[in-house]
Structure formats: structure tokens, C-alpha cells
Design a protein that fits this description.
CATH class of one domain: Mainly Alpha
CATH superfamily of one domain: Biosynthetic peptidoglycan transglycosylase-like
Radius of gyration: 41 Å
Largest sheet: 6 strands, antiparallel
Shape: elongated
GO biological process, one term: response to antibiotic
Strand content: 5-15%
EC number: 2.4.99.28, 3.4.16.4
Structural class: alpha+beta
Membrane topology: Single-pass type II membrane protein
Distance between the termini: 152 Å
Protein name: Penicillin-binding protein 1A
Number of strands: 16
CATH topology of one domain: Penicillin binding protein transpeptidase fold
Subcellular location: Cell inner membrane
């Protein structure tokens, strides 16, 4: 039988025999175990290396397949960049006064296109700081940002964080949806590379800052500056720039009008980012953080109240351009003077409110049951005043306490105000013990407040009557100011151009003008004596016109017009003939023949007229139906004016309705 020798242990001396080996069984067992552990460690390490290499290889293959798919399949499906290279956004119709004050804007999208060089540097830096500070360094896709977002997505088990560069956002805003999927992200990346090859960085940033939605129907930062702060983009401060830069992420959440606290937090974060990136200094940062932001209140979009004028322009533009009116970027400059318009608006408001005060207090607008003081009461007041919005300087409030000497009220923003003394004079009857239920002012009553010249509150009421005013220049009949009612938002009916009213004695100058044209003169003597006209039909009533004062006998026409004598006016009309007078005022002054009956009462202003027609007639010019001066598109090129405007004289001067000697 052959002798089989056990191999020598690597840990034993080579000369030891089998007996020596068997005399140390513990030591050799430990050696064998250590040898097994070493082989196990080498096996695990090798396995990890192989697994990692396999993973990298797999990822490389998958990546190559994705890139190949993107280039072969998705690449040809990418849209054309014509929307970017030939950028034609929807720009609304804008209406301006003659001194270029914006008074109206009509369109689904509020947008003002601004060139890159006209965007303030601080606005650009604020956007870059929060949206894409490496914008000028990457080629359209920021891979570091993508890796960061990828790890965040894996941690949250889904697409929870984006890594879109400004270029990728431009791609999404113009061509893609906002859905968070990996397929859309790939399209974004491919489009971003395509955009970067076609446009410069400055052009891409310009597109982004003009196209991005920023809430309140505002698209682009120039429009947002106007909507939120009432300023041109070039005039906003660093603090305002940072606040606007925070809007793209969530326009409603960071709206400085609706959510001022959240907007302030976002603004401070952006300012801190700008400081960390050395875009601004420490002093600029400190000053911007401390700056108080003043936003525009809803309903106070324009510095001049000219809503009726703007609506007139809109209607005439729509008649010419139809739906293009709201997207073509038309700019209409009117003949309105902003100072005159503001004075007219204030005059109408004051006149109507003075009339209201002379006719007594009608009572509170409504009533709400008030809970105990606290959050529930504040919410109840807020809900109640939602249905009673402020009307310019006339503020809605809910009474919280009332007695004949002092009334306390709360405004919609929670401000507590007190009214006493002269501020209660108008509503003294509603505070007395004998007040009726309709006029009684008590806790829960919804009332109106207005501040006097000294800033003290007075209780007033919204008017039920209306008023209107139109002012024209005698040289060309251009409308310099027009107020069609007390409040456009409350009543859009234009009492200047839509309301048919009998002009009364203001129509007498037209009859006298016809008489002068017929041959009578200012010194012609006319008898101011009683008149009697029997009925022209059997059983009818006779007409015996009267005057406000006693007849004065014979007098010159000049004096009769000065005193507005009814009987003299009727005698003049009877002399020249009603048909002659009708033809004269309709042909010379543009009045409607069917609303100018050829009867003797025409001398007293019978027959309805528009205020603007009467005003133009008094000045001796034909009516101009729209206060338009020029129409241009977004590039400043002249456009075809509406047909209703083309009847005006080519030199801009209206045709005289009467000769100089009779005007």
C-alpha cells in the first residue's frame, strides 16, 4: 500500500516530520482558519469589483441606448425654433393719453416686450441667482444640478425636484408641458442644446424674461413690474427686483399683493444668494432687506381714471381688427390730457357726492351678525366686506360699536377706525333713538367711509344717481377729458356717448345760430311776451309755453340768449321755420334727424341728444366719436385707423359747423 504524505503547512518549518506536526494540532487548526478567511476576503472584494464593473457597464450600455434613442428617434421629432428666432408673443392693446400715460390694457396676457440691454443689471442678477447661477458657464444642461436632482428623486421615490436651467425652462415654456416625467426631461435637454446652438446666451435670457408667467395675467418681468409696483422695469429697486425674481417658482404663493409675508421670505433668500455670489455688496444687501415694499392695490392699475375712454377705444379697435385687437400689440394714443382727465374725474365724483349729501342718508348697505371679538369676528367681517368692495376713496367698513357721539368700525384689512364729531353729521338721524330700521346704524352695519381734507373719517354712502362730463377743444373738436359715470366698475354704461337726454336750454344756441344764418342779427328785437298755440287736432290740448320769470317785453336777441328766454326762442324758431332749423342743426352740427323733430318745442331742447354731440355743437365743430390721435403696432409702425376715425379731416382739424360770424 502506497504511503500518502500530508502536505507541509505553509506555517510549519520545512523539516518538521509528521509526528512533530501531529504534536501541535491547535496551532495548525488556527492556521487553516486564517487561510480560509483570507481566501473569503479576496473572494468578496473580487465580487464587489466585478459587480461594480458590471453595473457601470450596464449603465453605460443603457446610457448609450438612451442617447442613441434620443438622437435617432427623439431628435428628429424636436420642434422648429421659429417661435424663438421669430419671437411674436401675444401683446395686448394699450391705450395712452396724449402725454403718454397708460390708461387701458386689453388682452388675455399682460406683456411688455423689453430688449436685453434695457433690462436692469440687478434684475438679471436676481434671476440668475435664484434660477441658474451657472447660466453663462454650462452649455444648456447643468449636469451637476441633474445629479443633485436625481439623488433627491431616488430618495423621495419619484420626481420631486427639478434641475432645469434657464435654457431648459425656455424650451419647456415654448414647446413642452410642465408635467414632471423623465421623457419630458430628455426632450428639455435636447431642446436646450438645440436652442444653445441657435441663440446667444443674452438672447436666451431675454426670451426667458419676456415669456415667463409671473401671476396676475402678467407675462415677463416688465409687465410684472407694472402690475405689482406700478413702475417701468427700469425704475424698480434692488428689493423689488429680488421680489419679482421669486415669482417664477410659484407665482400665486409668492404674490407680493396676496401673500406679502411669503413673498418677503422668498425675497430675502434671493438677496442672500445674490450676496453670496458677490452680485451685491453688504451695504446693498442690508439696505434692500430693510426697504419697505409698496405694491399696487387691486383695481388701482392706472394712475389716471379714464376707463370709459379706454373702453371706447377698445370697441372701435375691435370693429377694425377683431380678435387681433388683443394680441397684435396695438398702441393707441388718444387726445386725452391726463391732467384734464384727472380734474374731470374728481369734479364728477365731488358733484355726485355733494348731491348725495344734500338728499339725506338712506341707511347702511347691509348687516352682518358679529361674533365675540376674536378670529371668528375678523373672518366674519372679512367675508362680509368681500361683497362690498371699496369704490375709489369710498371705503367699506363694518360697525363694531355705535352711539350718537362715536362710531367704531373695522376695515377689510383689520384696521380699527373711529368716527366722531363732523364725521357723524350726515348720519345723525341713523344714530338717534328714533331712527327707522332701514336707517339705523348699529354693530354689524356695513357702512361707507371717506376721509376729509384733514384725514378724518366721515360716514357717507354710495350714490344712486349718475353724472358725466366731456371736454372738447374748439379748434378741432378733440376730446380732452371724458367721464362717462361715477364708477366704471359699478356701471359701464357711458352716459356721454350712450345716454340719450333732452339737452333743454343748452340747445337754444343752435336755434340762434340758425336764425343768424337766416339773416337775423344779435341786435334784432324780439318780443318776450306770452304765447298761445291752439290745438291742431280736435279735442287736443292747447300749448301755452311758460318761462321761469315774468316776460320782459321787447329785447335784442343777444340779451334774450343771455337770459335764456323761452318765449323769445320759440318766436325765433317760429319765424325761421321748424324744417329749416331741423335741416340746419342736422347738417351743420351732425345731430340725428330722427331725434330732432321739426316742432316748436325743439327751441326748448326737445328731442334726445348725446352729451358729446351737444358739446361739439356748442364749440361749433362736428362730433368726433373717438378721442383717437394715432394707432401703431408693437414695432411703432402706423396702422390703419378704424373707419369711424377716417371721417376726421386729414390735417387733424375738424370741419367748422358754423361760420365764424355765427359761431
Amino acid at each position: 500500500m502506497p504511503i500518502i504524505k500530508r502536505p507541509h503547512s505553509s506555517n510549519s518549518p520545512a523539516g518538521e516530520d509528521r509526528d512533530s506536526y501531529q504534536r501541535t494540532p491547535g496551532r495548525n487548526a488556527a492556521s487553516r482558519e486564517a487561510e480560509g478567511d483570507a481566501r473569503g476576503r479576496r473572494s468578496i472584494g473580487l465580487t464587489l469589483v466585478i459587480w461594480f464593473a458590471s453595473l457601470m457597464g450596464t449603465l453605460a450600455v443603457v446610457g448609450a441606448l438612451i442617447v442613441g434613442y434620443a438622437l435617432v428617434v427623439m431628435g428628429p421629432q424636436l420642434p422648429s425654433l421659429d417661435a424663438l428666432t421669430d419671437y411674436r408673443p401675444k401683446v395686448p392693446l394699450r391705450v395712452y393719453t396724449a402725454d403718454h400715460v397708460l390708461i387701458g390694457e386689453f388682452g388675455d396676457e399682460r406683456r411688455s416686450i423689453v430688449r436685453f440691454q434695457d433690462i436692469p443689471d440687478q434684475m438679471k442678477k436676481a434671476v440668475l441667482a435664484i434660477e441658474d447661477y451657472r447660466f453663462y458657464e454650462h452649455g444648456g444642461v447643468d449636469f451637476l444640478g441633474i445629479l443633485r436632482a436625481g439623488f433627491a428623486d431616488l430618495a423621495h421615490g419619484g420626481a420631486s425636484q427639478g434641475a432645469s436651467t434657464i435654457t431648459m425652462q425656455v424650451a419647456r415654456n415654448f414647446f413642452l408641458s410642465s408635467e414632471k416625467t423623465y421623457t419630458r426631461k430628455i426632450y428639455e435637454m435636447l431642446l436646450a442644446y438645440k436652442i444653445e446652438r441657435a441663440l446667444t446666451k443674452d438672447q436666451i435670457l431675454e426670451l426667458y424674461m419676456n415669456q415667463i408667467y409671473l401671476g396676475e395675467r402678467a407675462y415677463g418681468f416688465a409687465s410684472a413690474a407694472r402690475v405689482y409696483f406700478g413702475k417701468d422695469l427700469k425704475d424698480i429697486t434692488l428689493a423689488e427686483s429680488a421680489m419679482l425674481a421669486g415669482l417664477p417658482k410659484a407665482p400665486s404663493a409668492y404674490n407680493p399683493v396676496v401673500n406679502p409675508k411669503r413673498a418677503k421670505i422668498r425675497q430675502e433668500y434671493i438677496l442672500r444668494r445674490m450676496f453670496e455670489l458677490k452680485y451685491i455688496s453688504q451695504d446693498q444687501y442690508d439696505q434692500a432687506v430693510k426697504e419697505e415694499i409698496h405694491t399696487k392695490n387691486p383695481g388701482n392699475e392706472y394712475s389716471v381714471h379714464a376707463e370709459y375712454i379706454a373702453e371706447m377705444v377698445r370697441q372701435m379697435m375691435y370693429a377694425q381688427y377683431k380678435d387681433e385687437t388683443y394680441t397684435r400689440g396695438l398702441n393707441v394714443t388718444t387726445t386725452i390730457d391726463s391732467a384734464d382727465q384727472d380734474a374731470a374725474y374728481q369734479a364728477v365724483r365731488k358733484g355726485v357726492m355733494d348731491y348725495e349729501r344734500r338728499h339725506g342718508y338712506r341707511g347702511p348697505e347691509g348687516f352682518v351678525q358679529l361674533p365675540e371679538p376674536g378670529d371668528d369676528r375678523d373672518q366674519t367681517i372679512d367675508d362680509a366686506l368681500t361683497d362690498h368692495p371699496d369704490n375709489g376713496e369710498i371705503i367699506a367698513a363694518v360697525v363694531t360699536d355705535a352711539n350718537p357721539k362715536l362710531v367704531k368700525a373695522q376695515l377689510v384689512d383689520g384696521t380699527q377706525v373711529a368716527i366722531s364729531g363732523d364725521g357723524l353729521r350726515f348720519v345723525a338721524g341713523g344714530l338717534s333713538a328714533r331712527a327707522t330700521a332701514a336707517t339705523k346704524i348699529k354693530p354689524g352695519s356695513i357702512v361707507r367711509l371717506i376721509a376729509d381734507d384733514k384725514g378724518n373719517w366721515q360716514i357717507t354712502q354710495l350714490p344712486q344717481v349718475e353724472g358725466a362730463l366731456v371736454s372738447l377743444t374748439p379748434q378741432d373738436g378733440a376730446i380732452r377729458a371724458l367721464v362717462g359715470g361715477f364708477d366704471f366698475n359699478k356701471n359701464k354704461f357711458n352716459h356721454v356717448t350712450q345716454a340719450w337726454r333732452q339737452p333743454g336750454s343748452s340747445f337754444k344756441p343752435f336755434i340762434y345760430s340758425a336764425a343768424l344764418d337766416k339773416g337775423l342779427g344779435p341786435a334784432t328785437i324780439i318780443n318776450d311776451a306770452p304765447l298761445y298755440f291752439p290745438s291742431s287736432t280736435p279735442g287736443g290740448d292747447a300749448w301755452e309755453p311758460k318761462d321761469d320769470d315774468q316776460p320782459d317785453g321787447p329785447m335784442p336777441m343777444r340779451l334774450a340768449l343771455q337770459k335764456s328766454k323761452n318765449l323769445v326762442s320759440i318766436r325765433i324758431l317760429s319765424f325761421i321755420g321748424t324744417k329749416y332749423a331741423q335741416d340746419f342743426v342736422t347738417q351743420r352740427f351732425g345731430f340725428d334727424a330722427d331725434k330732432t323733430p321739426p316742432y316748436l318745442p325743439m327751441a326748448l331742447g326737445a328731442g334726445p341728444r348725446h352729451a358729446v354731440a351737444v358739446g361739439g355743437g356748442v364749440l361749433g365743430v362736428r362730433e368726433r366719436r373717438l378721442p383717437d390721435q394715432s394707432v401703431s403696432d408693437r414695432r411703432g409702425d402706423g396702422c390703419t385707423r378704424p373707419a369711424a376715425l377716417q371721417s376726421a379731416a386729414a390735417d387733424g382739424r375738424a370741419r367748422r359747423a358754423a361760420h365764424a360770424r355765427t359761431a
